[in-house]
């Protein structure tokens, strides 16, 4: 599984009238292709600020990114080139399958991975560098239409117009990783929406109230892929269908306020995936939704990662959601990452005292009614004057002398599991 | 949308009846209307004869219904001074006022909106300070004073524009304005311009930090696209109401400006008829002005509905 994003020592500060807010003091993490990274932490821990910094979306002034790197490897892993031509031919023969759209989203639960026979057939028909890794094969099978697999066909039909155009995009030739933080305006614009999609928390306020949703999604396509109005509309209808908006033809010209909360969030998602991004950053996308709808949205996003091989950064307060959907989890506290681990490892073997406390604060179904939930004493540090020792020392039951003198580095707990704590052996 | 328009129209009609009511009783409140209409030296018999002739000795409700029934077809009686139907006099003066109002509105739009936009997009910059200063001056300088200064500078000293009167030229059967409209229109536009600058600025400032603008940027749109498609369209909604209301006032004529520039419009006619105690004419102008304002408010409401889909469907 290749790395797609590598963030190192990201430092963002806000220059306010009250002083300098050290919003992020050295955030580092990796994101692998197609994985879901859950980012948890309390309000003000820098979850959103990290992601917004990557895309230069913070208002400046007051925000200033003062250090670090954010290497985007998205364009390096592509071996598309001539692959697409052969795909193109194949798409034609599957054209008639598109007709069966209507009921496709119903089958969104099924996790159809194509059979090995189909894979073999595809491999043969596609001139691609065979690396033999399972991941590659999987990727291909996901990109290709496979007879009989409804999801694959859908995926393909969604993909097709984009991919055909993507190969003409100039950025395709970049073989070096791109440092997002160093990009100029035009550079970051080609990343925003094109390579990295954003899903915001409150879709009602995040969608323009006076523009029909079809155009809001289509704007993306016109901007990044240079589509004409008709092509864009066609593609938007496909996207709406894909994310499960019933009757897209009619809903295309509706305004955001005419949709329910769940539907609006689906529109946000359609908007984020419109240009086939490699990464989606979802900033608490389910916070404003009720639990049933929450589950639907999570399912939808999981489908995206699976079918479109999109990596997802899922920012949330909700440890339950993360447990259910993330591959790895990054725990943030006071503008620093305190722990990063595969999801099971984090829940079974948390290393950082903050993570341990957080998990202790979770209610457990079936526990006795008089069981008191743990709370974490104290408050996060004042980011106007952050401490030069461990940020968590004040609230930490195990704080030793050293914790009051130095800032802990990330230490390896087990392979892939790191925590910023001196107590980790 | 249909229901929305119908409900607005019904409201507008209700308001106009209210205006008629006020216009009618306005005359009653001034005391005995006949004493206003007749020479102080008239004999009681003559007064009684006129009262009888004008119907003022009938019960007040009867008078009111007869006033209303004539007023709804635009008959406000004859002007005492001009001996012509009041409504004809108004319609005769209307083109001049319209010319002035449209010119003033155009000037305020052309200057006010761009200045407000620049200010709102670059808060704290030199342009922001300049625009806010202009906006403040526009709203605080009395326009009659400015008119006199303009005349002094541009007519008397520089001789670029005529100092009074309305000149037109006819081209292919159309009556077109000449530069004579410029000074009065500019003086008149100042207040509206100031308001537009300030409202545009604050609308842009507010909308710039909306979530959907961030979404627009997150799509990778170029800044000018974000401005045109996402910020301006939303900022235009509050501006519609200002433009509508201001245009209503402009169209009902400005007494000061039209008097200073001897502009043959409604404002001038109103000033004249008040001086002449020409009550039928004053009533007619008062009603006409209200009619214009109410109509424009109605159009504004409809435009509002068109611009903001959230209003449309309520």
Quick take:
The complex is a heterodimer of chains A (425) and B (314). Chain A is α/β, with parallel strands linked by helices and 425 residues long. Chain A is 35% helix and 19% strand.
Index terms:
heterodimer, A: 425 residues, alpha/beta, eight-stranded mixed β-sheet, four-stranded antiparallel β-sheet, 19% strand, B: 314 residues, mainly alpha, MetI-like fold, two-stranded antiparallel ribbon, 75% helix, 3% strand
Please explain how this structure is put together.
The complex is a heterodimer of chains A (425) and B (314). By secondary structure, chain A is an alpha/beta fold. Among the domains of chain A are: 84 residues, no CATH class; 89 residues, no CATH class. In chain A, 35% of the residues lie in helices and 19% in strands. Chain A has 15 helices and twelve strands. In chain A, the strands form two sheets. An eight-stranded mixed sheet of chain A has the order 6-7-8-3-9-10-12-11, with helices on both faces. A four-stranded antiparallel sheet of chain A has the order 2-1-4-5, covered by helices on one side. In chain A, a hairpin with a 2-residue loop joins strand 1 and strand 2. In chain A, helix 8 packs parallel to helix 11, helix 9 packs across helix 11 and helix 11 runs parallel beside helix 12. The longest helix of chain A has 18 residues. Chain A is globular and about 65 Å long. With 314 residues, chain B is mainly α. In chain B, strands 1-2 form a two-stranded antiparallel ribbon. In chain B, a hairpin with a 2-residue loop joins strand 1 and strand 2. In chain B, helix 1 packs antiparallel against helix 13, helix 6 crosses helix 8 and helix 12 packs antiparallel against helix 13. The chains are: A alpha/beta (425), B mainly alpha (314). The interface between A and B is medium-sized, with 30 and 25 residues.
């Amino acid at each position: 599984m290749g790395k797609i994003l590598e963030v190192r020592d990201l430092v963002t500060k806000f220059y306010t009238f009250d002083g300098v807010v050290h919003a992020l003091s050295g955030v580092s993490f990796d994101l692998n292709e197609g994985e879901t990274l859950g980012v948890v932490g309390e309000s003000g821990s820098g979850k959103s600020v990290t992601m917004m910094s990557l895309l230069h979306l913070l208002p400046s002034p007051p925000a200033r990114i003062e250090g670090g790197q954010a290497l985007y490897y998205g364009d390096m892993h592509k071996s598309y080139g001539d692959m697409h031509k052969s795909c193109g031919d194949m798409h034609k023969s599957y054209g008639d399958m598109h007709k069966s759209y209507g009921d496709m989203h119903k089958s969104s639960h099924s996790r159809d991975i194509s059979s090995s026979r189909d894979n073999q057939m595809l491999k043969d028909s596609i001139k691609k560098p065979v690396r033999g890794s399972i991941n590659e094969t999987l990727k291909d099978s996901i990109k290709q239409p496979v007879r009989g697999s409804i999801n694959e066909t859908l995926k393909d039909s969604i993909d097709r117009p984009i991919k055909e155009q993507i190969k003409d995009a100039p950025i395709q030739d970049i073989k070096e990783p791109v440092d997002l933080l160093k990009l100029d305006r035009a550079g970051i614009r080609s990343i925003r929406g094109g390579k990295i999609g954003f899903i915001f928390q409150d879709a009602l306020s995040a969608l323009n109230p006076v523009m029909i949703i079809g155009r809001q999604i289509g704007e993306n396509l016109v901007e990044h892929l240079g589509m004409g109005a008709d092509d864009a509309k066609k593609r938007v209808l496909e996207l709406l269908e894909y994310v499960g908006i019933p009757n897209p033809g009619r809903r295309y010209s509706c305004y955001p306020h005419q949709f329910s909360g769940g539907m609006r969030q689906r529109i946000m998602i359609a908007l984020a995936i419109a240009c086939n991004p490699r990464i989606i950053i979802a900033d608490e996308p389910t916070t404003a939704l009720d639990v049933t709808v929450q589950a639907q949205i999570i399912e939808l996003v999981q489908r995206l990662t699976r079918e479109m091989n999109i990596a997802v950064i899922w920012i949330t307060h909700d440890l339950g959601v993360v447990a259910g959907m993330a591959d790895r989890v990054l725990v943030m506290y006071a503008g620093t990452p305190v722990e990063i681990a595969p999801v099971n490892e984090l829940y079974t073997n948390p290393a950082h005292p903050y993570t341990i406390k957080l998990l202790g604060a979770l209610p457990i179904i079936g526990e006795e009614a008089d069981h008191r939930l743990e709370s974490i004493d104290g408050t996060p540090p004042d980011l106007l004057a952050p401490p030069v020792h461990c940020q968590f020392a004040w609230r930490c039951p195990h704080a030793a002398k050293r914790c009051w003198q130095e800032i802990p580095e990330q230490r390896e707990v087990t392979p892939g599991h790191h925590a910023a704590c001196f107590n980790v052996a | 949308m249909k229901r929305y328009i119908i409900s607005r129209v019904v409201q507008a009609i209700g308001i106009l009846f209210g205006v008629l009511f006020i216009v009618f009783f306005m005359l009653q409140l001034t005391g005995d209307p006949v004493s206003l209409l007749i020479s102080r030296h008239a004999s009681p018999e003559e007064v009684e004869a006129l009262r009888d002739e004008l119907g003022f000795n009938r019960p007040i409700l009867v008078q009111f219904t007869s006033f209303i029934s004539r007023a709804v077809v635009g008959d406000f009686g004859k002007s005492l001074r001009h001996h012509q139907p009041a409504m004809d006099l108004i319609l005769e003066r209307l083109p001049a006022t319209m010319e002035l109002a449209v010119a003033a509105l155009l000037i305020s739009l052309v200057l006010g909106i761009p200045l407000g936009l620049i200010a709102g997009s670059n808060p704290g910059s030199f342009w922001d300070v300049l625009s806010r200063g202009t906006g403040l001056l526009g709203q605080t300088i009395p326009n009659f004073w400015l008119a006199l200064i303009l005349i002094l500078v541009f007519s008397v000293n520089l001789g670029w524009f005529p100092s009074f009167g309305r000149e037109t030229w006819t081209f292919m059967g159309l009556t077109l304005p000449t530069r004579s409209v410029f000074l009065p229109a500019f003086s008149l536009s100042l207040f509206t311009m100031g308001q537009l600058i300030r409202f545009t600025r604050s609308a842009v400032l507010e909308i710039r930090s909306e979530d959907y603008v961030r979404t627009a940027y997150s799509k990778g749109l170029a800044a000018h696209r974000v401005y045109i498609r996402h910020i301006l369209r939303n900022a235009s909604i509050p501006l519609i109401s200002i433009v509508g209301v201001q245009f209503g006032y402009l169209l009902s004529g400005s007494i000061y400006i039209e008097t200073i520039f001897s502009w043959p419009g409604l404002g001038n006619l109103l000033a004249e008829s008040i001086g002449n105690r020409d009550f039928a004419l004053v009533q007619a102008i008062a009603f006409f002005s209200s009619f214009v304002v109410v109509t424009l408010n109605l159009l504004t409401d409809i435009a509002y509905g068109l611009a903001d889909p959230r209003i449309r469907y309520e």
